[in-house]
Amino acid sequence: PASPRTAPSQQSPSAPSDTHMAESSENEMTALRAQIEQLQSDVSHREEQLLSKTEQLTTQKDMFDNEREQLRAKVKETKEEAKRRIAMARERVEAVERERDEAKKYAGAAARAESGSAAEKDEMIAALRSEGEALMKKQSQMEQSIRATKGESRELKEDLAAETGAKEKALAKVGELEAALRTTRDELAGAREGETRAG
Q1: pLDDT digits over 11-58, tens only?
Q2: Do residues 116 and 124 make contact, with C-beta atoms less than 8 angstroms apart?
Q3: Can you tell me whether residue 38 is helix, strand or coil?
């Protein structure tokens, strides 16, 4: 009897298609991994930049805080110096007023001396004249001192106004730095959140 013929094996038509799909899927996964790695690298780089910027802003804020404290101390010192000089000027004015009162008293004594004897009158007038000249000289010196004190007080007020302006500018700059620092921190938090989602 004739032996049965073995039918030739037929290859499944779906095999090449499955291989192609597997290769395509692998390529897509490789590309996706590359994209994820690039994204993680970009996020890490951005995070480093934000951290560096945060450190810079923090350093600048500390510097301005120190400058602000120095300005406050200087303004306080200037105010105290102004008070001291104004008190000295008032004391000088009061001294001049006392001298003036003394001069009026001597003038009254001179008027009373007119009713006395001629010798006593001449003696009293000479004494009063000498005392009056001394008082006028002293009063002139005191007035010059008062004018000088007023000039110093005016300079102190101008210095105080300038320091107050500088303080206000420093406070405004500190406010700007604090706002920039908050924005940077928000960006850093957003970058970290993006990195977390990417991972």
Answers
A1: 444 445 667 777 777 888 888 888 888 888 888 888 888 888 888 888
A2: yes
A3: helix
